[in-house]
Structures are given as C-alpha cells and as structure tokens.
Description:
The structure holds 2 protein chains of 2 kinds. By secondary structure, chain A is mainly α. In chain A, 64% of the residues lie in helices and 0% in strands. Chain B has 9 helices and no strands. Chain B has helices spanning 2-23, 27-47, 51-75, 80-85, 87-113, 134-145, 147-168, 182-187, 190-193. The relative contact order of chain B is 0.05. The A-B interface holds A 13-14, 17, 85, 88, 118-120, 123-124, 126-128, 130-131, 133-134, 137-138, 141, 149, 152-153, 156, 160, 163, 180, 316-317, 320 and B 1-2, 26, 28-29, 32, 35, 39, 42, 51-52, 55-56, 58-59, 62-64, 67, 70-71, 74, 133-135, 180, 182.
Amino acid sequence: MTAFFQSLGLSYEWAWTVATLTGIIVISLLVMFSVAMVIYVDRKVLGAIMMRRGPNVVGPFGLLQSFADGLKVFLQETIIPSAANKGIFLLAPIITFTVALAAWAVIPFSAGVVLADINVGLLYILAISSMGVYGVVMSGWASNSKYPFFSAMRASAQMISYEVSIGFVLVCVVLFAGTFNMSGIVNAQQGFGFGVINAYVVHPLLFPMWVVFFISALAETARAPFDLTEAESELVAGYQTEYSSMSFALFWLGEYANILLMCSLNTLLFWGGWLPPLDIPVLYMVPGIIWFLLKTFMFFFMFSWIWATVPRYRYDQLMRLGWKVFLPMSLVFVAVTSGYLMATGHFDRSIAPTAPATSTEIVKTTPAQPGAVRGQS
Amino acid sequence: MIQAIAFYFFATIVVASAVMVVMARNPVHSVLWLIMAFFNAAGLMVLVGAEFIAMLLVIVYVGAVAVLFLFVVMMLDIDFAAMRAGFSRNAPLGLLIAAVLLAELLLAVGAYNAGGLSLGTPDGSAVQAADTSNIEALGALLYGRYIVLFEIAGIILLVAMIGAIVLTFQPPKPGARARQDVGKQIRRRPEDATVMKNPEIGQGVEL
C-alpha cells in the first residue's frame, strides 16, 4: 500500500504514514464489524444449544440485532456514579477497547496481508494482551463499589496466572518455528505433519500444548467456564456493574475483540493460519483469508459451545488449574520439546551458520523452513 | 522527520508522566502515571531499534510488576493528612538523596560525553547489522559470551524465589482442617451425596 501512496507523489515517509493509518482504519472497522456479527453468532449458537431461536427479529434472520443493540446503547445516557474517580472511571473502558484493537496490528490475515510484519510479532501480542488487565483493574477500583472491586482483584490474579502458562506454550511453538514473526510461524507449518498437513497441532508434543493454550485462552478472555470476573450470581456484573451506555459498550466490544484475537491466535500458531488444511495444490486456489476466517470461526464456535455447556469453575479450582496443572505441564513440555528438537537436529542450521547453505541434508532436517526445501528442489 | 516527531512525543510523555508520578496526590494515580512512563519508554526503545527490549519492558514491567504495584496500592488505606504531616521531618533526608542522585546523573552523563563509556552512540551507529534480528543478536551474546553470568543471574533469581516462598510458607497448624483432596472431590457422584425422596402429597419428608 505504501507503493500506491508513493505513486501519488508522496515521499516515502509520508506515504508510509498514510498507508499505515489507512491500514489501521480498515482493520479496526473490519474487526468491529466481525465483532458485531460474532456477537450475533454467539447468541444464535447459545439459542440453538438451549433449543430456542435466538435473535430473529431485527433484519433478515435477526442479522442486524447487534447493530440495533449498538444504536440503543449509543443513545443511552452515560451515568457516572458520584463516588467514582471520574478520570480513571472513563479511561478504563477506553483502555480495554484500544488494547483489544491494537493487538490486531501483527495478525496476518493472509500471505503478506498484515499491517506490521515485525519480527517480534508474538512478543508484541503478549505485551499488548498483558495490558488488557488494566482496563479491568482500573474500572474496578474507580467505580468505588464493592462488586467491581472484587471482580478487579479476581481478574488481575486470573490473567497473570494464565499468562504464565500461555508464555511457555508460545515458547514451544517458537522453538519449532524458529521465529517470533507471525507470518514466519505460519509459513513454518506448511507441510509440517507427514509432509501434507499444514498444522502444528498434529505433532504429539504440540497437541497437548494446544489444549493448554485453548483452555488458557478461555481463562485469559474471562469466557465461561472461567468468567469469574463477571460471575453474575455473585458479583452482579463484575467490573462493569457501574457502567452504562457507551462506556459499557466499549467493554463489551473489547471483550469480543479479545476473544476473536485468541481464536485467530489458535489458528495462526497451531492450525496453519491462512494455509489450507492439507498441502495439496488444488486447495491453494481458495484465497488464504477464507481459510483463516473459517478456522477462526471454528474456534469461535467452540468458545460459544463451551459457554453453553460447561458450568463455572470455583475460584480455587481456577487457580489450581493455572498454577498446579498448566504451569508444571508447560514447563516440562518446554524442556522436552527443546530436548527433542536438539536430538533430531532441528537447530543444526542456526548452530552451524558456517555450514554450506547448499547442503541438502541440512535443509531437509529443518522442518522450520519447508519453503527452503521447496526452493532448493 | 517523523522519527524526530515520534522521539519528542515519547520523550515528553515519559518526562511528564515521571513528574506526575511524584506530584500526584493519590498513590493509585502515581502508579498509573508510572505505567504510562514505562509504556512510553518502550516506545523510545522501539525508536532506537531495540524492539526486543521494548517488548520485554512492556511484558515484564507493565504486564506483571506494575499490576502487582497497583494491586498492593489499591488495597492500602492511606491517611493523606498523616502522610503530609511528616513532610518537614523527612525533607532533609529526601533532599540529600535527591542531591546524591543528581550528582550521579551528572557524573554518568559527563563520563558518557567524555567517551569514558562505550555504550553506543546517540547517532544510532550502534544499531546492529540489518541481517541479524534483535533476538538473534541478544541470544548469541547471552547464551554464548555471557553464558556464565546469565546462568549465575538465573540461579540468584531461583534462590530468591525459593527464599520468598520459604519465608511466607506457614505449615498448617495442628488441628487445622484437612486439606482438600481434588481427586476425592471429583470422584464424588450425586448418588453418594443426595437421596431421592418421593413423598405423597400432603406428607412431609423425614431426613
């Protein structure tokens, strides 16, 4: 896109700036639109599982329900409790919403379709998603009310606990891929399983890690069965209790944008991103973004399914799962994975950079770079 | 030019929020300003090409350390009047510490300008070659040249962690309730805990 703006007569710097701003706006609008549609899907799936119809009044099949809700919320009055700390109270939903959108900057939607193709992409996502807890903590404190404060304390403990195991899971993936770049991780999955399956999840060392990641993603986004931060039977509505109108909607949208982000991370890190499921030429005729959206939607469906099926965890069970089950398990897997990769000569290329790059044996022993194999032959 | 704008933008915010950390009356606001300073310092790191350090700064300080700060400060019940009453008593000590810090800062900047330190130059010539990424360069140094120091730092952190756990660990008091056995809880079935009664209409249930 930078080249296009350069052809309009802008210098490189300004062309880049304009192109990036355009990209930000396009991605934010598309993510917001998907969030609106995904809220509708969530309610429809929940309805179907509970044997009711779900939203079906506004628009064909109720498709416009989310937009109607958005308009309703937009026209409501913003109420700020008199005891609230006004500045922080208003800042909290803005932070939640901004952080949820900012992480999308490094998500590759298809080959080369990414706003910022930086080589610390995965770390950037970790950094941004660890900021998400501030929206919750600040809203809980600034509301100056019991239930939001309880909820904020629960949320901060929960998010920190599960970020630890998510970090170790990501280390396993990075060990296999050999890069932190999101596009690089997806490219490394091409033909990974038995030479035909484009997914990391088929590997016996990575499948348990995917399960850990999926459950941690549920906990990280405070989805059922880990929605203790807004457990309506105990905490009214958790940290959102005192919020109304748009400030409430920003929490709502940010939450769903985070859920979509976690679904797309599942897709990118373990299920081959925009690559088709099998490494067969005919499947590549379908555009990559279709595969990406299909896989992401599959994970979103699983999120809704779990929401409708599983009862809520007790808080001590949640902490036990995070610290006593996932953390030791992912630590062991990091050690086992790196040992396995050392034993099978996965790192030979990076350890011996002086080795001749044309040597076919070395290229073949690096599943991290299947593109290189293809390029050689 | 955009780089210059970005630099002055981040730098101004870092300095301003650092001032606000000290000036803010409410300790929670102080912590939030501190987080603002951390975050914009990470922006400065990105500008000099140290994106790995920038991400670590956000993950470690903003994502973990500052959350714990905020957590503790939010729970504090601070009496502001009593805190300000102690100002005149503590002022000389505070001024002394400030003077020492200022002297150290001047010394460090002076030594850097005189060429006594070889940290890197402000003109950006210390940025590594374009073909190695930040992470690779750091990894080669940490796990190659400085492996012993790196391992020693790791051992020290491990010892500190175990020390903290030992210090806060309290053995269960004798006579305290037994610990919960998760396996036992999961094995428990509804049939073990409940009974089904089918009373006649108008009749009570005897348990």
